Amino acid sequence: MQVNFFNSIYAQTTNAKDFGLCDDQNLTPAYIDITDISKWVAQVVNHRNKTATFYPIDNCITTLRPDNSMDNRCDGLLKHDNNLIFIELKDRDSQGWVSDGLLQLKSSIEHFKKAHPEILCTSTIKAQLCNKQRPKAVTACNVARARFKDETGYIADINRVIELK
Questions:
Q1: Which of 4, 23, 107, 142 is deepest in the core (most CB within 10 A)?
Q2: What helix, strand, coil percent values describe the chain, rounded to 5?
Q3: Which helix (H) or strand (E) holds 55?
Q4: Domain boundaries, the chain
Q5: Spatial separation of the C-alpha atoms in residues 42 and 124, rounded to whole Å
Q6: 69-87 burial by CB neighbour count: b if 16+ within 10 A, else e?
Q7: Average pLDDT for residues 120-124, to the nearest whole number?
Q8: 19 with 25: CB under 8 angstroms?
Q9: Are strands 83-90 and 42-45 parallel, antiparallel or unpaired?
Q10: How do residues 91-105 score in pLDDT, each as one tens digit?
């Protein structure tokens, strides 16, 4: 089954200078918000007012393992220019959120590479893990980030703030 990560049914576009990405944790897709900062799990700083489109993945796209069971998925994909940022949104203070989030990002990137191989050579791909309760990554995350880079070839930032450059 071919998966389309750029399904325009759920896509949201903005060029706001500052906006948030939200996940209400209620089986609905993640979304852009420009008004209620208290709901923002991630803050996107868009200094140049670039047009950015957010494509929700979790609760929108079906990604299957070889045994046809549901695979892990991140919350969404933020696209601006030729830049693609896979994003996982967390609102947890418990242990294990980094490893869980990086697994979701890795799985989504693997499915994306299979579904859209033509985009890989023309886009910059990154991953971002955001936790509302842990806005800045701790030093201990460096080992997990290095392992993610080794396994995927892509950089994973662990920070609540996403800067569009």
A1: 23
A2: 20, 30, 45
A3: strand 52-56
A4: 12-163
A5: 20
A6: eebbbbbbbbbbeeebbbb
A7: 91
A8: no
A9: unpaired
A10: 988 888 999 999 999
Q: What is the pLDDT of residues 132-142, one digit of tens each?
A: 988 665 656 88
Least confident of 11-15, 32-36, 83-87, 136-140: 136-140
Reading the block at residue 116, the tokens are 């859209």
Rounded to whole angstroms, how far apart are CA atoms 32 and 55?
10
How far is Cα 3 from Cα 110, in angstroms, rounded to an integer? 12
Q: What backbone torsions phi and psi does residue 110 show, to the nearest 5 degrees?
A: -60, -45
- One-letter amino acid at 121 equals C
Helices (H), the chain: 97-115, 141-152
- CA-wise closest residue to 21 among 10, 30, 13, 29: 30
Beta bridge pairs of residue 87: 76, 128
Residue 109 CA to residue 145 CA, distance in Å, equals 15
Residue with tokens 């080992």: 143
